[in-house]
Amino acid sequence: PNIEKMVELKPDIVIAATHFKKEALEKLETLGIPVIILYDGENFEEVYKVIKTIGEIFNRFTEAENVIHNMKQKVEEVMDKVKDQEKPSVYYVVGFGEYGDYTAGGDTFIGKMIEMAGGENVAKEVDGWTYSLEKLVEQDPDILICSKYFDSKAGIEKANGYKELSAVKEGRLYEMDNDLLDRPGTRLADGLEELARLIHPNMFK
Question: Could you tell me the residue range of the domain that residue 38 belongs to?
Fold first, then answer.
């Protein structure tokens, strides 16, 4: 970050993410500017804590509590709708092609959200984000989900290995706004609902 520019703006407080450099943190604190680092939540409960903390920082405790309440309500409603449904196998495409194949492993927040949305995460036995194309072809999941940005769907439909998958050939490669999942925040409950709609469309008519 541009420390000089930040100091010039004379902020009362700086809210930073976990990748904020230690040197920048120390310099701001030396200059008397308080810094609060918020950690990305690994589950909904941790995200609720971050929202609550932000509400306390800005003296918007009631508003933060309302946001948390609405998120919890939506999560509960979604999970209730899909709880008795059969779980199709789902593969979430994070990356593909010449630079490798990436998805949401079982220990990731997105991987857990797939399960919450009534799907069976194909990569649930894997930690992290790296996956094997050979394994994906072998698993041949019922559903593929990708970002609606960057022409991801068109690329997947032409990619070696992917284009042979049943889900791709039979029209079960679905797009969604990946920002709803990739950025832990107030829209995560909407992301869960969108996932569930793609996995169990009949339950959301």
Answer: 3-80
Give the C-alpha separation, 140 to 50, whole Å: 37
Q: Reduced to 3 states, what is the DSSP secondary structure of residue 163?
A: coil
- pLDDT of amino acid 41: 86
Within the chain, residue ranges assigned H as helices are 3-8, 22-30, 44-57, 61-82, 109-116, 133-139, 152-158, 166-169, 179-182, 188-199
Instruction: Using pLDDT thresholds of 50, 70 and 90, give the confidence band for residue 64.
Output: very high
Mark which of 65, 80, 95 sits at the end of a domain.
Answer: 80
The reply to whether 54 and 7 lie within a common domain is yes
| Among 178, 191, 184, 193, residue whose Cα is nearest residue 146 | 178
CB count in 10 Å sphere of residue 95: 15
Q: Which of 63, 80, 97 is a domain's end point?
A: 80
Rounded average pLDDT over 100-106: 98
Residue 25 phi, psi (nearest 5): -60, -50
pLDDT at residue 163, rounded to an integer: 97
Q: What is the CATH number of the domain that holds 103?
A: 3.40.50.1980
pTM as predicted = 0.91
Q: Is the pLDDT of residue 61 over 90?
A: yes
